[in-house]
């Protein structure tokens, strides 16, 4: 039986957050509802951040209230601070994520904090989440390259990943935020990170700006990673990472993994429908 590799769908959050014109809440809900029947275990659908920083995500509570929750699917939300966590909890997110950076430049630009300040800010989120029984995932951005600071030292990534794991994140997702990584830089980064966090507690989160995300996934598979974030239709980018293109497309990751004889558990026909919806949202949005 083929080994399972999980794709964590992040399109409704990472994919849509960068769209300039406000997408109707009903359209976001329709996309999530379509994705819910594809076979994912986890879908990131919301972000409880400041609406001044990311206006597109301001209706996150309404999205979580409006979706039809499928059994066995966990609906996730980003929570940068305690206030965000309280919003996510009230909206009944099944899991949340704190997000930090391996580079100081991106940390400041994205969450207006130094790396150290951001880690301190996550502690009360971890405590509140533990009390509420909500699992917390951790993101590390700019794991190889930063749009402000340039090349990132693998040991800086390992240090932040270790801190997130030690504070209780059940999994740490490693972000090539601007899609500049190569299989070699991913391998060097993972060599350092796997010394402090086991590979089965890591995920690869690769943007496809340079068209290398699938090759970077292969390099990560060789290091033992079995979870990858992707966005249906290749939606996305980050408003605080100039030049960041979309996340690697879910359907492309599914096809590559299938060709490599892994099993994703996803229904390709549903992925096609969801990719169609995602592309229509984006086209509609740039009219
Ligand atoms: P700040 O300005 O330093 O903090 O923002 P603040 O405490 O002064 O708050 C500013 C305003 O936001 C205040 O409102 C707060 O009340 C409000 P005002 O008094 O001015 O009216 N506020 C909030 N509102 C709603 N929900 C909240 C919240 N917190 C404060 N949770 C802050 C600091 C972290 C809030 C801000 O920088 C922020 O929201 N940043 C989020 C940026 C973001 O969402 N980026 C994209 C996601 S990360 C990403 O895409 C990377 C990833 O995909 C991995 C990868 O690719 O590498 C995960
Ligand atoms: Mg991202």
TrEMBL record:
Pfam family, one: HMGL-like
Occurrences of domain Pyruvate carboxyltransferase (ranges): 5-272
EC numbers, comma separated: 4.1.3.4
Top-tier EC class: lyase
Domain of life: Bacteria
GO biological process: ketone body biosynthetic process; L-leucine catabolic process
Pathway the protein takes part in: Metabolic intermediate metabolism; (S)-3-hydroxy-3-methylglutaryl-CoA degradation; acetoacetate from (S)-3-hydroxy-3-methylglutaryl-CoA: step 1/1
CDD domains associated with the record: DRE_TIM_HMGL (cd07938)
Gene3D superfamilies per UniProt: Aldolase class I (3.20.20.70)
Any one GO molecular function term: metal ion binding
Keyword annotations of the record: Lyase, Metal-binding
Record-linked InterPro entries: Aldolase_TIM, HMGL, PYR_CT
PANTHER family, per the entry: HYDROXYMETHYLGLUTARYL-COA LYASE
Family stated for the protein in its record: Belongs to the HMG-CoA lyase family.
Name used for this protein in its record: hydroxymethylglutaryl-CoA lyase
């Amino acid at each position: 039986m083929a080994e399972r590799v999980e794709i964590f769908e992040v399109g409704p959050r990472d994919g849509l957050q960068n769209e300039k014109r406000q997408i109707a809440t009903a359209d976001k809900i329709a996309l999530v509802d379509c994705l819910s029947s594809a076979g994912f275990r986890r879908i990131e659908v919301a972000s409880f951040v400041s609406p001044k920083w990311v206006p597109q995500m301001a209706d996150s509570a309404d999205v979580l209230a409006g979706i039809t929750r499928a059994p066995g699917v966990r609906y996730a939300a980003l929570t940068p601070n305690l206030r965000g966590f309280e919003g996510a909890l009230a909206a009944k997110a099944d899991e949340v994520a704190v997000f930090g950076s391996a580079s100081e430049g991106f940390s400041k630009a994205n969450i207006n904090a130094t790396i150290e300040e951001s880690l301190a800010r996550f502690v009360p989120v971890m405590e509140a989440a533990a009390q509420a029984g909500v699992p917390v995932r951790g993101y590390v951005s700019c794991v190889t390259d930063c749009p402000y600071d340039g090349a990132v030292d693998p040991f800086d990534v390992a240090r932040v990943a270790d801190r997130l794991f030690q504070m209780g994140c059940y999994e740490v997702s490693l972000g090539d935020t601007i899609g500049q990584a190569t299989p070699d830089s991913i391998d060097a980064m993972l060599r350092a990170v796997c010394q402090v966090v086991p590979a089965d507690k890591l995920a690869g989160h690769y943007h496809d700006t340079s068209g290398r995300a699938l090759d970077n996934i292969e390099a990560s598979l060789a290091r033992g990673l079995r979870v990858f974030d992707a966005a249906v239709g290749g939606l996305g980018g980050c408003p605080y990472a100039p030049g960041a293109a979309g996340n690697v497309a879910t359907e492309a990751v599914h096809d590559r993994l299938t060709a490599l004889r892994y099993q994703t558990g996803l229904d390709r026909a549903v992925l096609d429908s969801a990719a169609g919806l995602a592309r229509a949202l984006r086209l509609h949005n740039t009219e």
